[in-house]
Amino acid sequence: MIIKRVAQALRNQDWFAFVVEILVVIIGLMLAFQLDRWWEQRGDRAQEAQYVARLIVDIGTDIEAFEYAVDLQTVRLEMADLLMDVVVDPEVATHRPVEFLGAVLQSTFLYTPILTTHTFEDLRSTGNMRLMRSSGIKDLLHDYYGYEANQRQFHAIWFPKEIHHLKIASGITSHEQDRFIQENWVFFRPQDMEQVRDAEYDLDSVRASVERFLGRQEFVDWLPQTRQMQLLQIRRNESILEKANALQEKLSEYLDSIEP
Predict the structure, then answer these.
(1) CB count, 10 Å around CB of 69?
(2) CA–CA separation, 49 and 53 (whole Å)
(3) Cβ distance 99 to 197 under 8 Å?
(4) Longest dimension (CA), the chain
(5) CA 160 and chain centroid, separation
(6) pLDDT in tens, 195-218
(7) Model pTM?
(8) What is the pLDDT of residues 233-252, one digit of tens each?
(9) How far is it, in rounded angstroms, from Cα 117 to Cα 148?
(10) Which of 80, 96, 92 is nearest to 193 (CA)?
(11) CA–CA separation, 254 vs 242, rounded Å?
(12) 3-state secondary structure labels for all residues of the chain
């Protein structure tokens, strides 16, 4: 219909009507384009909000994992301290007999949680990182996930140290003692420690293990390394936990700013 009116205006040389019809066409196209763009942007904002909400959930999972990791490694640091105290005063082992027996092996165990990367990998692999309008948020995401990935290079250093510890600790505790711990706890967790420290065990058997422990000079000399491993692991986990808390706070603020 509009095309017919424009053609008629040209035939009649009605330039005013021609200009009006052209303006109507242009304005109509512009409005249609703007409306389409508005709907597209609205969809992008909704999708962006979904991604941010998912990231907040993922990082919340990380925070729980790394809080537990710090608590667990702190327990193992205390085990290393207990062993070093027994070197100075062997009777210390009889005050916390079961913890001492478990500490011989478990003081070297390391726990390294893996970040929940599902949403971040989705953003990268699909190209939807473009939906994140804030360059600051993008930088924080890359810093957070990049830092953890960079820390993985140290796994190759820690694993041989764990193996070395277990090798030189072999035989300090008896099969019966190891079985007792395995069947009751498998390994000590933060929530177990009150029960572990209250647990009783045959003290003559414990003193025999203390004698083997003190007679294993290589193991005694290694204890500062064991303690350092736990301390460094705690600091690493605390660093990631600090980044996770800061990122979750920024993402929550950003989510509130996204218009529906």
Answers:
(1) 21
(2) 6
(3) yes
(4) 118
(5) 23
(6) 999 999 999 999 999 999 999 999
(7) 0.83
(8) 999 999 999 999 999 999 99
(9) 11
(10) 96
(11) 18
(12) CHHHHHHHHHHCCCHHHHHHHHHHHHHHHHHHHHHHHHHHHHHHHHHHHHHHHHHHHHHHHHHHHHHHHHHHHHHHHHHHHHHHHHHHCCCHHHHCHHHHHHHHHHCCCCCCCCCCCHHHHHHHHHCHHHHCCCHHHHHHHHHHHHHHHHHHHHHHHHHHHHHHHHHHHCCCCCHHHHHHHHHHCCCCCHHHHHHHHHCCCCHHHHHHHHHHHHHCHHHHHHHHHHHHHHHHHHHHHHHHHHHHHHHHHHHHHHHHHCCC
Handedness of CA 200, 203, 208, 211 (dihedral sign): positive
Residue type (1 letter), 128: N
The structure tokens listed for 109 are 């165990």
Q: In one letter, which amino acid is 198?
A: D
